[in-house]
Amino acid sequence: MMERLLLVLPALLACVSGALIPEPEVQIKVMEKPFICRRKTKNGDMLLVHFEGFLESNGTRFHSTYADNNNQPVWFTLGIREAIKGWDKGLKDMCAGEKRKLIVPPALAYGKEGKGKIPPESTLVFDIHLIEIRNGPRSHESFQEMDLNDDWKLSKEEVKAYLKVEFEKHGSSVNETHHEVLVESIFEKEDEDSDGFISAREFTYVHDEL
Ligand SMILES: [Ca+2]
Ligand SMILES: [Ca+2]
């Protein structure tokens, strides 16, 4: 018993002292802010951004959506580690039209390994222009939009109706059977207690994405 405790103790101490080391921070500089800001970014939102990324060490540009992506901005979801941690930390409370410069330490970027053109232990500098904000698929707003009768749960009919609208928005032709299959697979995954409804909790609970 005592032996086991002794084995556990150093691990515990490591945890505690680890917590005392300050978390690496992203430096955020707001370069430009629009006059009108109807909403600000929050976790779960989908952000459309133009960006250029540089190595702080020598100023090399490793990526630019203007030059390397046919001048097309890119979508990413905030707060789910779709991009580097530094973006999740540095792009909160941002308005559409806003421009920010982020200085991201390696621990919040590509760390010890680096990636592609980015050498290990690189501090990165990003110039980011936020073009558009949309409700992410897991947001509270999306749930309310889907819950047509406001009973705080989604029926198969409600999910189907939502898919129909979404597909039409994106110009896809509507195929009933395809929707049925899609709805079934969504419920299989999301309806955890199998009561035939997706509750608000089941909907907003993010399984292992975070
Ligand atoms: Ca409902
Ligand atoms: Ca359920």
Overall description:
The chain is α+β, with helices and mostly antiparallel strands and 210 residues long. The chain has 7 helices and 8 strands. It has helices spanning 2-20, 65-68, 85-90, 140-146, 156-169, 176-190, 200-204; strands at residues 27-32, 46-55, 61-64, 74-77, 99-104, 124-134, 153-154, 198-199. The strands form 2 sheets. Strands 1, 2, 3, 4, 5 and 6 form a 6-stranded antiparallel beta sheet that branches. Helix 5 packs across helix 6. The chain is elongated. The mean pLDDT is 86. One calcium ion (CA) binds next to strand 8. Residues 44-134 form the PPIase FKBP-type domain.
Low-confidence stretches: none
* Class from helix and strand fractions: alpha+beta
Work out the strand percent.
Answer: 15-25%
The total count of helices amounts to 7
- What series of H and E elements makes up the topology? HEEEHEHEEHEHHEH
Give the overall shape, derived from the CA principal axes.
elongated
Percent in helix: 25-40%
Brief digest:
With 210 residues, the protein is α+β, with helices and mostly antiparallel strands. The chain is built from seven helices and eight strands; from the N terminus they run αβββαβαββαβααβα. Residues 134-169, 178-210 form the EF-hand domain.
Keywords:
endoplasmic reticulum, six-stranded antiparallel β-sheet, two-stranded antiparallel ribbon, EF_hand_dom, binds calcium ion, elongated, alpha+beta, 210 residues, 33% helix
